[in-house]
Amino acid sequence: MKMSVKVKPRSRSEEVSREGDSYVVKVKEPPVEGRANRAVLRLLAGHLGVPESRLRIVSGWGSRNKVIEVIPSEGGGR
Fold this sequence. Notes:
single chain, alpha+beta, Conserved Hypothetical Protein Mth637, Chain: A, 5-stranded mixed sheet
């Protein structure tokens, strides 16, 4: 599953919200050396209830607009 995410770095609070078909993720970290990207993955993982290792930034590493993929779990629900 892929999702569109708009990132707001250097926010006062950290939160995940929905805006139409995409997510808005506010993080306190600055967009320096991937710190904001790591914070986005951490917050989204907690919000979606999946391990951080199952999230991958497909596009938008250097942009506020990102496409993030949730990698399916192994085992297929057995």
